[in-house]
Amino acid sequence: MADHQVLLKWYNSLYSRTVDLVGDYAGDERFILDGDSLLLHVFSDEKLDFYPGFQLLHATYMVEAFLHSLLRRKCNFHVAFFSNNAHLCIPQSAPNTLHSRYRLAREAIIQHLCHNLHRVVPSVGVRLFDGYQSLKFKDYLVSSGAYFFMCHDGALSVRANLNHAEGDLPDSNELSDGQHDRWGDENSMPVSELQSKLGFRCMIHWFICQSYNVALVNTLECRDTKIMAIILEDSAQRAQKLFSTKSPDFENIEDSQSLKEPKEEHTPRQETVSEALSGSKTQLAATEGHTRKNSQEVHLQNLAWNSSRKLLYLTLICRVAITLWQ
């Protein structure tokens, strides 16, 4: 069986539960948030327009709003970006002609966070690494004392459509099939979605091999003072035995016809998440009214972030654009 088939089956077998990250799980312990997972979560929002417009300020505000929602609930975290995973921030529904826009937005947002986040919230560090398997990151992981890792798992809903009308996108086999549940059928997904899932799930496998549990950023929901998310757990020994040799390298996945889905069908694990609170069966479906309420609160409390943003972004965009197009 191919490595990617083994990985997907292993992921489907993981034990999961839904918890309040601060109140019931980690308390004030530090965790690491994967920056490209955050960007994918933001870039996939149907209200964000990257074509025909280029709403870079809107995307930056959404990133800030997400981070602020964590800080309001007393989360202690650092943000880590891996250059080898830069392509994973691009939504699966994005045509190839728009990939450069997402990479430009990624670089501009990283520069903005590196230059400004520590001034507003000194406890939140932004770290840049080549990859999560690099020696530099391994040393940082030990010194940071992180309790768990938060990232995306590559599963997107069909609403992640860049605000394009049905006829606006060119014919492409890169469109998402709409699978949003991590126990969904893997046999019919297009190659690009398979690559996205492999990239994130290989990262999840690596962290579990290092004895870290993983919270899924795409299941996160803020409820009053609680921050609910799915936690994935497995023994490091079991994860390390998944591959007979070394763990496969999916950090630099590119489009390739050599990646094919497994032909054999298997029954994914049927158990859904353990319900942590009474009535939590609906806790992963955030209402639009609650989102608007949080957005208004975030907007009022983030005025300090916006004082010099326009000038900063004009400078950043020019500098990054010149670098990219030279």
Would you mind describing this structure in some detail?
The chain is of the alpha/beta class and 326 residues long. Helix content is 40%, strand content 13%. It has 10 helices and 8 strands. Strands 1, 2, 3, 4, 5, 6, 7 and 8 form an 8-stranded mixed β-sheet that branches.
Main sheet specs = 8 strands, mixed
Overall geometry = globular
Order of helices and strands: HEHEHHEHEHEHEEEHHH
- What structural category do the secondary elements indicate? alpha/beta
| Count of alpha/pi helices | 10
| Alpha carbon gyration radius | 19 Å
Provide keyphrases for this structure.
326 residues, alpha/beta, single chain
Summarize the structure.
The chain is of the alpha/beta class. Helices cover 40% and strands 13% of the residues. Strand 7 and strand 8 form a beta hairpin.
